[in-house]
């Protein structure tokens, strides 16, 4: 329903008596225009200001630093405030004490769940299940809204092909097509196509744009990219989120074509508004405005004007708008139309959220008690988490484990509930997360003897562990010597039938400002793992990580590797469900795992070059595009992931080997479950455009279906292909398909080799 088309009667809040009464509210355009006519310039500029809440404790909102600013109409929204009681108190200040009683937006980084925490976004993407991903966002919105939040800084849709960058953990991997589907699903989950509900919240697609391409994988670093690459490979997920109705967009920290995104008019106005038709508002990322001073764009007044002129509406934390816009207006550096436009877009969002009808719409204290971290939500999180795990290796069917005998669970991540939720889990209750050891004990049952030893610290260097375990995500560093820790581990290892080694990164080794140059498991844990392998017992590596790691040695020496990312508050239970075969793993990588950090950037949809390597055996060829010290291929490709069962692909065919621009053809394949377990498979379709006006990737994902097959069952999976699927941005940045030959691959990963081809004609 289009709000602005109707004039309706609703229950509004009468602040004086604290009772509900029926009020009539005008349609959006009229309502907002009338409100703006009453606003002073200061009040207008105040709406553009988004501070953090500071440390407001319950019952102390009135005496907080921000209270005075709210009363004076200098605040449009607040973020980083948790609990409905506190939010209600603060909203009361805006609604009862400020002159125009304009309610506040309450934002938070609800990135992968609220108290019920889902896998980190990179893990979630490995489910390849849009319904589950949407559902996770919906549950996050339900819990956050029950606790007073009406705006989330999610989804993060930055494509990244550089695992050195810690924030790969927050996105959906390397692929524009998959990333776009996920962006849509997340926006839908948060906003539910209806912001008038009290359990849907405003989403904010971030970080616009290209943040995932920071040079050298170093956070906040320069980005330099051709427009054609932006449009084909990096922009699509942002656009998909905008098309899905994302109500707000966050500017990224990096520069684009030499101008920081926060001050980049081409990006914010030409692309976002004029080309894509975005109607919501743009917020800076944190101190994005004052950071432009260090970028070398001028003083605070200059950069604040630059941001407003570019098309940025809300200033997070920076206070550049608050402190300089008035002066810039007097000096004609910004116009009143620009200020008015920004205010209008922010008030529109508040209107859409229903805050003018009822500023306390999200402040129902009872809801918080009944709807947050419920057993039903946790159960869904456990199911979703189990689908995000990726089985990278399973020699001699070491997995699934038997629910009998003795299992030695060893490693610094085994008893680490504070680390299970992963990065950006600000609302999670770390104490209530399920550790791996707790999950294994629960799922293994009474017939199994479970032993535990830490085995090693995160790494030998205590100062490294300090940097990697911030925000309370401790690993309880053990002050015994490495030798003593190892001796204890080997003792239980030797008593066991199988060893589960819980190793990898701590939660804060990825995420913001957690770039790495070394993509190995930390050395202390590598040494522990090799010592465990030497016992001769079968070893299962349960890997925790927020990014692709270099696992060459582990892959050579360990029979089974289950990559679990950071699977959320229910991680331990979900991992145990998979380890013991109650759930069959079905996750598929959405990002390439390199053999060496030197291969970065590495991604499946690369170009052929003029000197492609002539062999697939990894043999070095002089004057071909390859390395003298490493193969070209990754260790694990995009789309890869094993199951406890096996799938056979056969009978790949097209409905026709010719397609007209206005026609369609279908591609189909038969898939048979040839193993001993029921299972799920992500069937992936890739195309290759053989000749183009610009060079085209060797493969591009254009479709996928996740299917369930009982053991022995066979299904035919069919994909429709239309000209839309074959379009790309050419060198004039026109979105076109070009006639010619196309190859179609369908398979279990981006390595799919079976192909058929067709010709596209006008
Ligand atoms: C991050 C954003 C986040 C914001 C607010 C920034 O440092 O880059 O992703 O939404 O902080 O917490």
Could you please describe the fold and organization of this structure?
The protein contains 22 helices and 28 strands. With 762 residues, it is α/β, with parallel strands linked by helices. Among the domains are: 199 residues, Glycoside hydrolase family 3 C-terminal domain (Rossmann fold), CATH 3.40.50.1700; 115 residues, Immunoglobulins (Immunoglobulin-like). The strands form nine sheets. Strands 13-18-17-16-14-15 form a six-stranded mixed beta sheet, with helices on both faces. Strands 20-28-27-22-23 form a five-stranded mixed beta sheet, with no helix packed on it. It is globular. The structure holds beta-D-glucopyranose. The site of beta-D-glucopyranose has 6 residues, from loops.
What would you call the shape? globular
Task: Provide the CATH top-level class of the domain at 381-579.
Answer: Alpha Beta
Cα Rg: 27 Å
Class derived from helix and strand content = alpha/beta
The CATH H-level homologous superfamily of the domain at 381-579? Glycoside hydrolase family 3 C-terminal domain
CATH architecture of the domain at 381-579: 3-Layer(aba) Sandwich
